[in-house]
Specification:
binds pyridoxal-5'-phosphate; 12 helices; 7-stranded mixed β-sheet; 12 strands; metal-binding; transferase; alpha/beta; globular; Cysteine desulfurase; single chain; 3-stranded antiparallel β-sheet
Length: about 375
């Protein structure tokens, strides 16, 4: 039996998303072509745009389709990092210490804002940085991909508003899993494969209609805001995935996650953010102090369980988690595995995982801190 517990790397494809993808494979046309097949493709594209806009209580012109979450984040930094007076007067980029590399790598000049021990952004540091740095673009994720910890976005919106700062939110992990609103944001980024769609589509959702300078120039697609032919099947499956994800009762998944937490604590593990910060329903970061994360990952893999160390987008690299380091977890940052439950996880799978985890912990032991 192989059990996949790495949904934050990529969600399991949802049936609704598979069907939508198949339906969108047939039109032969390019959505930018004016002939009949092109118009048919265009209809699918615009219907997907309308539905995604409806999901965010936005207008269709506020949706810019991209290739995924990384591109949507990069586009936000590119577009909103520019000053009102043009690219020469760049805004200062302020980013949370626990951001995904999709934001961390966007600009070497970014100011990094600390998080508290609970993993949540330090609002006092944000306020001070806004006072010191003048016009700014703040980039914060709504939910952390490694720990599931939720940042206080409502409070961050209020602080940014007081300093007239722009605020871009990486909503890649929260979207579909918890209610989340576009209100007060300059933009937010989403990614279809994190919600149960196929890979290859994401979107930058703009807080207000308007032109943004493209990062990818080309044929003027997406109202001149992102060049390149839109991947219809991926876009259609992304929209269907978000709609299905929103219908799901995530408390069922949260209960399974809580079962893992209980068992892990009983085995001597620590859990990042446990009981001190709100978290996504499907995510937990288990720290078995002193036991290299890679060793845990390999043992669990041999036992038939797919989990990850830190951010799975970088799971080729074996380095301590910058997220846990920022939370002051020191050595623990090299001993954490992320378990992220897909939408269709079953109780039997979790009971089997718990047995494997407990037997691993008993063998490797926790050199508890
Ligand atoms: N932002 C967060 C929080 C993520 O977890 C990820 C992927 O893990 C991304 C952005 C990048 O998304 P994509 O894989 O669609 O480029």
């Amino acid at each position: 039996m192989s059990v996949y517990l790495d949904a934050n790397a990529t969600e399991i494809l949802r049936d609704e998303a598979r069907r939508a993808m198949l339906d969108a494979l047939d039109p032969k046309g390019n959505p930018s072509s004016v002939h009949g097949p092109g118009r048919q493709a265009r209809r699918i594209l615009e219907e997907a745009r309308d539905r995604l806009a409806g999901y965010w209580k936005a207008g269709p012109e506020q949706i810019v389709f991209t290739s995924g979450g990384t591109e949507a984040n990069m586009l936000a930094v590119h577009a909103f990092g520019q000053g009102d007076a043009g690219p020469d007067k760049a805004r200062r980029l302020l980013i949370g210490a626990t951001e995904h590399d999709a934001i961390r790598m966007a600009s070497p000049q970014a100011v990094t804002l600390p998080v508290h021990e609970d993993g949540r952004l330090c609002l006092e540091a944000l306020e001070q940085a806004l006072r010191q740095n003048g016009p700014a673009l703040v980039c914060v994720m709504a939910a952390n991909n490694e720990t599931g910890i939720l940042h206080p976005i409502d409070a961050i919106v209020s602080v940014c508003a007081r300093y007239d700062a722009r605020l871009h939110v990486d909503a890649v992990q929260i979207a579909g899993r918890l209610p989340f609103s576009l209100a007060g944001l300059t933009s937010l980024a989403i990614s279809g494969h994190k919600a149960g769609g196929i890979m290859g589509a994401g979107a930058l959702v703009l807080g207000a209609e308007g032109h943004i300078p493209p990062m990818i120039r080309g044929g003027g697609q997406e109202r001149g805001r992102r060049g390149g032919t839109q991947p219809l099947p991926a876009i259609a499956s992304m929209v269907a995935a978000y709609e299905a994800a929103r219908q799901q009762d995530w408390s069922v998944i949260a209960r399974l996650r809580d079962r893992i937490d209980e068992a892990a604590l009983a085995s001597g593990a620590r859990i990042a953010g446990d009981r001190i910060a709100p978290r996504l329903p499907n995510t937990t970061s288990l720290i078995l102090w002193g036991v290299p994360a890679q060793t845990q990952l390999m043992m669990l893999d041999l036992a038939g369980f797919a989990v990850s160390t830190g951010s799975a987008c970088s799971s080729g690299k074996v380095s301590a988690s910058h997220v846990l380091q920022a939370m002051g977890l020191g050595q623990g940052a090299a001993s954490a595995i992320r378990v992220s439950l897909p939408w269709n996880t079953t109780e039997a799978q979790i009971e089997a995982f718990i047995a494997a985890y407990q037997s691993m912990a008993a063998r490797l032991g926790s050199k508890a801190a």
